[in-house]
Design a protein that fits this description.
Two copies of one chain form a homodimer. By secondary structure, chain A is α/β, with parallel strands linked by helices. Chain A has twelve helices and seven strands. The first copy, chain A, has a seven-stranded mixed sheet, sandwiched between helices. In chain A, strand 6, helix 8 and strand 7 form a beta-alpha-beta unit. In chain A, helix 1 crosses helix 12 and helix 6 packs parallel to helix 7. The longest helix of chain A has 20 residues. The relative contact order of chain A is 0.20. At the A-B interface, helix 5, helix 8 and helix 10 of A face helix 5, helix 8 and helix 10 of B. Bound molecules: adenosine-5'-triphosphate (ATP) (2 copies) and magnesium ion (2 copies). The site of one magnesium ion has 4 residues of chain B, from helix 1.
């Protein structure tokens, strides 16, 4: 039975995709079998593993609409123990098309149930919104990992995200837990960043991972080579931080 | 007749709000009458001018649903010549509730028509998605300003955004133009950043503003004081860049 984790935060550009791609790679490097589901119509997680636009024929949109089985959409990333369900821009249409479906919030949950036995972890990358795609991911997941940029607007959004998670818990998914918060793009020379980190640790305590992800240019270069930073530059501070995060995650 | 400009990019965290808030302030500082419309349920532009959560009673959600007139929702920012229409989290519900409305894409356009005579510029901040809120902003606007972070994922999203703008032009708004692209969080010491800038200028030519916005910590500190960076720290590189952008904009 896989541990299914959604990476969600409606604030944009906080490191959801970067964390999904690199954490999945880190877990696979530790010998775990991992599936990463790209739940964002931007398809950045799919790009992050080097898939071209024409390699997304099989994708999540088709699964949610019932046109394909999840099993047939799973592709290998080429990294041992790490598979992917791709996303393409058509996935944006699912936000509107799913509104008429029965049990529309459970489409992804039901699809993932058919493959859950084959994996140790399933990570779902979410778009920067709290629409039906993110709700499908939150309902399918047992817990939520919240990547949080140490900036003011991102901190402001955290309370709103926590309220939304609470609402989903009460309405349709009582077992949804917060797996943790991971601080991203951290630059401790910057006062605002230190302040936000202190605030978040005071507010959420142990829910905040001890490992923080530093701002590191190698992380933002890696996607242009279609590789996770762990493969692109193993010695970088970014790669080391994500390996450490994977190790800390395995202890939980 | 106001010049109505939407600040749009479905990629998250690229500087849409920061550009809307600081450009609006720069234009007002040049003596223009400006209205900024916060079209994002996160309400970051509203926060950027220091409005607390309980000061958003009158907001865009009520206007789009027809519960309030736009005129009654306009608030002063306290900055000479600069008014705001606030957003609160309820605006997220408009994405779903508007689907049943007649001419749902034109709700914002029709509302802004009632106040357009009173302003020189109306800037609309968009959420990081291409849903009904962003479509309302694109239909209401005469042109689109695209804030673009000089990073790989953001560049990848640009072609998708340009296609969406083209589709809207053909379907419902033939006069929609691209006002320009402004590069944000630029750090010319970083090779990737220089590469992205070169690519975008080669691809879009004069559509790309000569002014670039540098990565500047004072920009990210300003929202925690509820002020645009131009007021928070006029001498900062970020403030100077936005004043220069406003001047370049006035020449177009
Ligand atoms: N630790 C880091 N150091 C430097 N750059 C980073 C880091 N983490 C992410 N980035 C870069 O910042 C940008 C935003 O990150 P990313 O796209 O992963 O965020 P996101 O939350 O998935 O965005 P969206 O809301 O659009 O889905 C990307 O260009 C990425 O390469
Ligand atoms: N030039 C800059 N230098 C440093 N920080 C910046 C700069 N521009 C924006 N920021 C910071 O980067 C973060 C993202 O910017 P902003 O929120 O304006 O982007 P956005 O595109 O509006 O995000 P969203 O997609 O969530 O609406 C914010 O915390 C902001 O303070
Ligand atoms: Mg992403
Ligand atoms: Mg914004």
């Amino acid at each position: 039975m896989a541990k299914i984790i959604a990476l969600a935060n409606q604030k944009g550009g906080v490191g959801k995709t970067t964390t999904a791609v690199n954490l999945a790679t880190g877990l696979a490097a530790c010998g775990k079998k991992v599936l990463i589901v790209d739940g964002d119509p931007q398809g950045n997680a799919t790009t992050g593993f080097g898939f071209e636009q024409d390699e997304r024929e099989q994708n999540l949109y088709k699964v949610l609409l019932g046109e394909s089985d999840l099993k047939t959409t799973i592709q290998s990333t080429g990294i041992e123990g790490l598979d992917l369900v791709a996303a393409d821009v058509n996935l944006a249409a699912a936000e509107i098309e799913l509104t008429d479906f029965d049990k529309r919030e459970f489409r992804l949950k039901n699809a993932l149930a058919t493959v859950s036995e084959a994996y140790d972890y399933i990570l779902i990358d979410c778009p920067p919104a709290l629409g039906l795609l993110t709700i499908n991911a939150l309902v399918a997941a047992q817990s939520v990992l919240i990547p949080l940029q140490a900036e003011f607007y991102a901190l402001e959004g955290l309370t709103h995200l926590l309220k939304t998670i609470e609402r989903i818990k009460q309405a349709i998914h009582p077992k949804l837990e917060i797996f943790g918060v991971v601080l991203t793009m951290v630059d401790r020379r910057n006062n605002l960043c230190v302040m936000v980190e202190d605030d978040v640790r005071a507010f959420l305590g142990d829910k905040v991972f001890k490992t923080v992800i530093p701002r590191n240019v190698r992380i933002s270069e890696a996607p242009s080579f279609g590789q996770p930073v762990i493969l692109y530059d193993l010695k970088s501070s970014g790669a080391k931080a994500y390996i450490q995060l994977a190790a800390e995650m395995l202890k939980r």
